[in-house]
Amino acid sequence: MSVALKSVITETAQSLEEKLTSLLGEKVLPQEVARPERLLEAMNYAALSGGKRLRPVLMVEAARLFGHENEGTLVAASALECIHCYSLAHDDLPAMDDDDLRRGRPTTHKAFDEATAILAGDALLTIAFDFIADEQVHPDAAIRLRLSQELARASGIGGMAGGQMLDLASEHRDRTEAEIRQLQAMKTGALIRYACRAGAILANASDDDIARLTRFGEIIGLAFQLADDLLDLTGDAEVVGKATGKDAEAGKATLVSLLGESHTRQELSRLISEADELLAPYGAKANTLKTLARYIADRES
C-alpha cells in the first residue's frame, strides 16, 4: 500500500471510528426506551473492531470525486459499515461459517455468546436505517429515501443476505461460472457497489456519472471477492487475521476453485484495467479511487 493511500484510509477510518463511537453511545434517543449495556457493548465490539473500512472509504472518495465532503457523508458511511459489521457477526456464527477469529481477535459470539451476537447483529442492521434517515445525511428527503431503499436492496434478499444463502447452498455442490459470479455479486459485491453509487448520489452527480461509479463498484466488488478467495487458498492466517483454507474445507464453489489460481489472477488484472478506463475521464481527481482498486486486487489481508 502506498504512503498516500495509507494516509487516506487511516484518516477516513479514524473519522469513521469517531462517528460510530458517537452514534453507538449510551445516550437514549427520542422514541427509544433504553439501551441495554451488554447489547451496546457487543454492538461496539462488532462495529469498532478495526479493519480497513473499505466500504466507507469508497463512499467518501466517490463523493469527494464530485466535490462533496461533509459530516453527512460520514453518517451515511457509518450506516453502511453497521450493515457490513452485522453481516460479519452473523456470518461467523456456528450455524453459518463457524469462525472463532475475525480481524485477529475473537469473533463476537466468542467474545460474548451466540444469542448476544445475534442480537448485536440485528441491532446494527436496524440502527443503520436510523442513521441513513437522519437529515444530516442530505437536506433532500428524496435523496435520503433513495439511499435507504438502495441500501435495503443491497443488503437484503436480492443482495448480501441472498448471496450468503446462495453461498451456503453452494457447499459440496458444483456451480457454473455464471452462478458463482451471481453469488459473489450479491454476497460481497452488492455493498461495495452501493458504497460507490451512494457516494455519487450524495454528491448530486449526473446519471451518467452515477452509472459509471456503479460499474466501477461492480468491478472492484468482484475483484475484492477474487482476492479474498486467493487469500483463503494461499494466505497466511496470521497475516489475514482469520482462518484460511475454509472454502476448500467446506467444499464451497469459488472462481478460484473452478478456474484455477493463474486464471483468477489474470481476471483480477483485467478488472483493474477496466476500472482504470472507467475513471479515466476524471483525470487526477480519481487517483485515490484508482489506487484503491489496485490495492483491493493486490491486498494480503
Description:
It holds the Pfam family polyprenyl_synt. This is Probable farnesyl diphosphate synthase. Keywords: Isoprene biosynthesis, Magnesium, Metal-binding, Transferase. Belongs to the FPP/GGPP synthase family. The structure is a single chain. With about 300 residues, the chain is mainly alpha-helical. The protein has a single domain, classed as Farnesyl Diphosphate Synthase (Orthogonal Bundle). Helices cover about 70% and strands about 0% of the residues. The chain is built from 16 helices and two strands. The protein has a two-stranded antiparallel sheet with strand order 1-2. A hairpin with a 2-residue loop joins β1 (about 100) and β2 (about 105). α11 (about 205-235) packs parallel to α16. The protein starts with a helix and ends with a helix.
Secondary structure elements and pairings:
Blueprint: H1 3-23, H2 37-47, H3 54-65, H4 71-91, E1 101-102, E2 105-106, H5 108-111, H6 114-132, H7 141-155, H8 160-169, H9 177-187, H10 189-202, H11 207-234, H12 237-240, H13 246-250, H14 255-259, H15 261-279, H16 287-298
Antiparallel strand pairs: 1-2
Helix pairs in contact: 1-3, 1-4, 2-6, 3-4, 3-10, 4-6, 4-10, 7-10, 8-9, 10-11, 11-15, 11-16, 15-16
